[in-house]
């Protein structure tokens, strides 16, 4: 099969290799998926750059955790009726070496979720890290119906879905954006109000919009950079769910946070409880089947140009998912 892989850490142009390797065999409880799309996410590029020094201990890595395709074979313990099923794949390159940047992947059957026939494979490749992370951030700490939810970086890959999940759950949503284009993206996703986080005191603009009402929940794209402003707009007893931080070890104003009785939740798909993953998969399947979510594909690359997908992620400035198409 055709595949992209790396055997050492470094820049994508230097270390990504392309070629033919053996198709994986399917084991107990696994399905063999013929992939037609692979999603490239920041976590994938960080792995390739060396964020996890032991990653290559077992040998070369086929990158990317997210993808979509069709089940062509099943292993013992999996119903044969799943053969021919359209699926989206998540967590393919977590705790294992072989991800979705290839024509085939063999993976635990529960990591291959049904993809409705009305949904493009490229969209399916966006459901893993972006849509599941957003779902967890919105739903992990109880219902948001009637609540005021702040989504920082609402035009980002996760933020865009977080706005939609919160609106579908009955929340009022305020998003932050950096320019007119991202503001329009947030509004298109369903945000009720959008404020600019380029303003040094954007928290004041938020409270002006809400007539002083503070938010119940924050879905945050950059914990270290946004914390001081978030603490000005979140209510006593509120919750911050964050999935990223430009500062790896941000300082916490512990006393202030303690007296706010606030909850801080860190979210990453890999560590989500299985019950949360099942909740997300069920809601994603229902939303896809009924056309309740909108999607943005920022860039598409053929597998042969896989390194370019990494470069696009690392360059930044993209509003939407980066997808590698596999023919």
Automatic annotation (TrEMBL):
Protein name per the record: NADPH:quinone reductase
Report the transmembrane regions from the record. none
Asked whether the keyword Disulfide bond is assigned, the reply is no
Organism the protein comes from: Sapientia aquatica
Instruction: Show the GO MF annotations.
Output: oxidoreductase activity
UniProt xrefs under CDD domains: zeta_crystallin
Output the InterPro entries linked to this UniProt entry. ADH-like_C, ADH-like_N, ER, GroES-like_sf, NAD(P)-bd_dom_sf, Zinc-ADH_QOR/CCCR
What sequence ranges are listed for the domain Enoyl reductase (ER)? Answer: 11-324
Task: Indicate whether Membrane appears among the record's keywords.
Answer: no
Query: Keywords in UniProt for this one?
Result: NADP
